[in-house]
């Protein structure tokens, strides 16, 4: 019943370990046991490392790779929306520089449409990623219980790909938020 991803970083496991570490540290503080307190702190630190690893992904143009080998291609609306935003912003800037209100307005409209299009693609990828992760997790557990190793590998891949898809959206949203804070 062993999974190919049994050693993959887990967000849920990091929460469990962090809570356990906090409790152990608190008990150590209450009882005066520096050993328990130190072990609790070590467990909390390890949990933070596990959490950070579980959130890690590499975002490439048009795709995302998760740390557990998942690969997800971006929804086409995400790339096209981003392109429309870039072109729209350029038109808006040029229109402003040369005093062409029509070009400026057209650029602003294209930029807004690109934002909506990208958001639509992100929503699609996020929903699909969450669904694939859930289906992969449940399917992998059932396949593991029944001893279906091939099925378990299939569902583990589905879960990993769903995670990559979800992490790609999260990465893009975080990047957009950082850019807005700078403005």
UniProtKB/TrEMBL annotation:
**Region ranges (Disordered):** 27-183
UniProt feature coiled coil, ranges: none
Residue ranges annotated as compositionally biased, kind Basic and acidic residues, are 38-53, 147-183
UniProt-listed Gene3D superfamilies:
YjbJ (1.10.1470.10)
InterPro entries on file? CsbD, YjbJ_sf
> What segments bear the compositional bias annotation Polar residues?
27-36, 79-88, 102-119
Superkingdom of this protein's organism? Eukaryota
- The segment(s) forming the CsbD-like domain are 77-125
Give the PANTHER family listed for this entry: CHROMOSOME 1, WHOLE GENOME SHOTGUN SEQUENCE (PTHR40460), CSBD-LIKE DOMAIN-CONTAINING PROTEIN (PTHR40460:SF1)
Q: What is this protein called?
A: CsbD-like domain-containing protein
- Species name for this entry? Tolypocladium paradoxum
């Amino acid at each position: 019943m062993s999974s190919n991803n049994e050693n993959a970083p887990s967000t849920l496991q990091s929460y469990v370990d962090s809570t356990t570490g906090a409790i152990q540290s608190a008990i150590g503080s209450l009882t005066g046991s520096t050993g328990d307190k130190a072990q609790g702190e070590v467990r909390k630190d390890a949990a933070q490392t596990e959490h950070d690893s579980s959130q890690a992904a590499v975002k490439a143009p048009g795709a995302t790779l998760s740390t557990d080998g998942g690969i997800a291609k971006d929804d086409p609306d995400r790339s096209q929306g981003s392109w429309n935003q870039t072109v729209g912003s350029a038109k808006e800037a040029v229109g402003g520089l040369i005093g062409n209100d029509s070009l400026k307005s057209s650029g602003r409209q294209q930029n807004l449409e690109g934002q909506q299009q990208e958001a639509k693609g992100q929503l699609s990828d996020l929903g699909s990623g969450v669904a694939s992760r859930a289906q992969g997790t449940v399917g992998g557990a059932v396949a593991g219980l029944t001893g279906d190793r091939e099925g378990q590998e299939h569902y583990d891949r589905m879960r990993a790909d769903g995670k990559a898809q979800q992490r790609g959206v999260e990465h893009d949203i975080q990047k957009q938020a950082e850019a807005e804070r700078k403005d």
